[in-house]
Design brief:
CATH class of one domain: Alpha Beta
Largest sheet: 8 strands, mixed
CATH superfamily of one domain: Alpha/Beta hydrolase fold, catalytic domain
Strand order of the largest sheet: 34-35-37-36-38-39-40-41
Strand content: 25-35%
Number of strands: 41
Distance between the termini: 5 Å
Shape: globular
Length: about 700
Amino acid sequence: MRSSVVALAVATLAVLVAGTVGGTRTPDDPFRWLENVDSPRALAWVATQDAATMRVFQHDPLFATNLDVARAEGSSADRIPAPSILAGQVYNFWQDSTHVRGIWRKTTVADYEAAHQHWTTVIDLDALAASEGRNWTWGGIDCSPATETRCLVELSEGGEDARTLREFDLTTDRFVSDGFVLPRGKQSVAWVDDDTLLVSREWRPGETTASGYPYIVRRWRRGQPLDAAVEVGRGERTDVSADPAVLSDGAGHRLALISRNPTSLEHEYRAVTAGGTELLALPAKSTPEGLVAGRILWSLDQSWTIGATTFPAGSLVSLDLAATLADPEHPKPVPVYVPGPLDTLQDIETTRDDVVITTLHNVRGRVAVYTPRPGGAWSAREAPLPDNATIEVDTTDSHGALAYLAVASFITPPTLWHLDTGTGQLHPVRSMPAHFDSSRDVVEQLEATSPDGTRVPYFVVHRAGMRLDGSNPTILYAYGGFGASQTPLYSAMLGRLWLARGGVYVLANIRGGGEFGPAWHEAAITTHRQRAFDDFAAVGRDLIARRITAPRHLGIEGGSNGGLLMGVEFTQHPDLWNAVDMQVPLLDMLSYEHIEAGASWAGEYGSVANPDQRGFLASISPYQNLKAGVTYPEPLIWTTTKDDRVGPQHARKFAAKLAALGDPYLFYEVREGGHGSGATIDERATTAALEYTYFVRRLMQPAGTP
């Protein structure tokens, strides 16, 4: 199948050379004009591409069927409303066919756990957007820990990371007429108390880092003009950012912090005190996670030796708050959680008196409640939840003992559990009914061997009794970056649009992720990133060697950093796959630092300013490594205009270069949705329908079928 493309002269390829030298961009990229995101010329190009792609799919009856299913799943009334607990009540953000942009609503804990819920709408985003003539999407809400009644509502134009913040009062369910308001920008805010904020933003034009993030933190008190806020700390322009944070516990203890972030992986923390700030002598690769009973929880992404004791990377430790503030140069950590060789730390959430911690053991979920004991020690009590599943903490009550846990697997619909962290009592609240018949499906965990001998686990979801003859249409997914773990999740759309049609789904736990702790992540950063790409290809070859599938029936997908993975696999192993789904991808790795927030990821990918790293980036950059005379599988490349994180520039230029090469491709750009697949149910459904129709056409239909 070939798509209609804009005719671009192959002769232009002669000037496609490496895009940067010593960190400074060169002017010889013929498709750089597509980086001007909202220019009339670029948007006209996008419109032409979208129209060509939609013509291909709209003539396929399967697309209409898939779109109907995706819309129905997106607005299904039996989804479990994701809870958050504020001031003793349960809140939820909800979208359906009636509430396209969504509503933020509330109910009591008892009503939430009842068979039939009765919600009160607090904010109607559709009505707000209509009344103000704005393209608002929900960005979230952040409430003061003092009373949990004063909150900042984050509003985004079309899903951008840049947000407008407005104060909201939960006692009146109204925006505060003379309250805190922060105009649109990439900014971070933390409540010190009901009348004081710590704010990091672009205070004056140009006061941002190369990544586009703020680096100056000020204290803003109620009643002050915004420009009268007083500086309390700053980073450097060469940093990624500087951000405030406030930790609090149910006993009223509070710790205000400023995090200076020289890279995306390294941090310097200062405690904000009445007399200024105090540097905390903590490892650069570590993160504050919460506060309980006057003890600070701190996770370690590197080993930390204090005296004769070494805490391994991946541990969680606690620090006495009062003692740490009294002597910040000599912290005295106490172990809370120390991982085994197949373990990794995941969620860390606090209730009034306890800590709920989820972990992975060989990529299988576990959960335990940790309770502080006299003398600084901790005790642990495991919660007996189903095995072979993903366990996530949906929310906790910071002033009580309630935690809601979500448990799901590839073929088991999610169940929400009520956990009382004080008593250990655990009971299911509700389960989502099955949205596809998984009675014939099974899940296996297998391993592939990467070229350097590393064993790489992966999950395979397939029909019981699957024939091992190489004919099974298979989608292989991975992410492999930023220490993010990929675990089994229930997807009704995957089930209905792929598994129910006899398709096989594979999730690979390649290096670069966090499935086996910080070392698994750091094994594939900067110039070692080829290991992640090799791991992925090894899984693909293992699937073929086991006769589960064959290149003709093997497709791959990944988004963002996973989109980079797709681009590399597309250029390095074009004969290994017959379908490549690139979702909001990074693809021009010689220019990524100059596009949107790209400079913030130099710690992960490396920088073109470093000669060795530049050489590696040039060797793997998908955009630069597209070549004439190579037979590539027709990819589906999609992005969003409003993505101000990765940016649509990568996807646009990659598609334009394929057009110049005369190679087939499909390109689609959603107008809204930020770094995602759309801002509304309909937009997300369209993207999903495109993807699954694409995979069926490429992997299930006979070769040569239009």
